[in-house]
Amino acid sequence: MQQKKLNFFTIRDTAHAIDIIEEFSNIPDHVDEYDANVLAWQYLIDTGAVWHLQGWYGRCATGLIHEGICKPKKTLGSPSQSNKEGDTPKKPKKTL
Model confidence over 11-56: pLDDT tens digits? Predict the structure, then answer.
């Protein structure tokens, strides 16, 4: 019995993610359009690129995170706490 090859859809880079979101790029037939868009938005969020694009992208990403469709960028360590007077500044969190 011959095994079927799986065709995984991945976002290659920031330009590819933007092309999917803006509908400039064709989505493969075996991939759902909704899933492709969620993957594209999640890629932009994970790379941090979404916060450097036009404001519309950041506002949409914030909405998608708020609605639970996308997840915020993963960080290592505990959530940052505001420094009280006299506290030493905390090191920034490392990102995955």
Answer: 999 999 999 999 998 888 888 999 999 999 999 999 999 999 999 9
- Nearest alpha carbon to residue 56 among 24, 21, 20: 21
Other C-beta atoms closer than 10 Å to the C-beta of 45 total 23
Q: What is the rounded average pLDDT for all residues in the chain?
A: 82
Residues 6+ apart with CB under 8 A from 53: 18, 44
For residues 48 and 75, the answer to whether their CB atoms sit within 8 Å is: no
What single-letter DSSP state applies at residue 31?
Answer: S
Distance CA 37, CA 57 (A): 13
